Amino acid sequence: MAVLVGKKAPDFKAKAVQGQKIIDNFSLENFRGKNIILFFYPLDFTFVCPTELHAFQEKLSEFERRNTQVIGCSIDSCYSHYAWLNTPKSKGGIQGVNYPILSDINKTIARDYDVLLEEEGIAFRGLFLIDKEGIVRHQVINDLPLGRSVDEAIRILDALLFHEQHGEVCPANWQNGQKSMQPTQEGLEKYFTMN
């Protein structure tokens, strides 16, 4: 797996579906100046995937409050996305999800982000936090049966925003409102003395 952290996020032009609308030329460049959570999931009409898409929707206002765009992506066509978006949650669908979902039918986006499981032709559960300048600041990749934590994505986003605002670093298990530290030996010692 490639480590993209610290590098410019691979851009793309792809079809996407948002609500009832198909978007032809969807690109990360459209969101310059915002943070982005780009997450990959294996397939529409599966089992763990709708739980994740709904979990992101349930916390969407938390991301928006942090000037962050959530974007989902799978190798399905935009027509499959559209059908899934029109399937009720009670039937395994994602009706009510209103952030954009990319169609990576040629698998180029998943390949560029190095999350493509080549032998099956689907993506691992990759998640990338891309900052306002288009730089990948965090990535995590789960195997197919392991659903991810949306709360952890928010925690990492909060840590980035805190660091950008205050210049301090966030220790293990840091939550918004907890103690941070200066990135120095003195800062570390002070942190350990206060805890």
Task: Describe the model.
This protein has 195 residues and is an alpha+beta fold. The chain folds into 2 domains: 1-146, Glutaredoxin (3-Layer(aba) Sandwich); 149-195, no CATH class. 29% of the residues lie in helices and 23% in strands. The protein has helices spanning 48-58, 60-65, 78-85, 108-112, 150-166, 185-194; strands at residues 14-18, 21-26, 35-40, 68-74, 101-103, 116-117, 122-123, 125-130, 136-142. The strands form 2 sheets. Strands 2-1-5-4-3-8-9 form a 7-stranded mixed sheet. Strands 6-7 form a two-stranded antiparallel sheet. Strand 4 (68-74), helix 3 (78-85) and strand 5 form a beta-alpha-beta unit. It is elongated and about 55 Å long. The protein starts with 13 loop residues before the first strand and ends with a helix.
In total, the number of strands is: 9
Note the gap between the termini. 36 Å
**Helical content band:** 25-40%
Enumerate the strands of the largest sheet in spatial order, edge to edge or round the barrel.
Answer: 2-1-5-4-3-8-9
Report the total helices. 6
User: What's the domain count?
Assistant: 2
The major pleated sheet works out as:
7 strands, mixed
What structural class do helix, strand and pairing data support? Answer: alpha+beta
The CATH C-level name of the largest domain is: Alpha Beta
Mean pLDDT: 96
CATH homologous superfamily grouping of the largest domain: Glutaredoxin
How much β-strand is present in the residues?
A: 15-25%
Q: What fold name goes in the CATH topology slot of the largest domain?
A: Glutaredoxin
* Overall 3D shape: elongated
Low-pLDDT runs: none
The CATH architecture of the largest domain can be given as 3-Layer(aba) Sandwich
Radius of gyration over all CA atoms, rounded: 18 Å
SSE succession: EEEHHEHEHEEEEHH
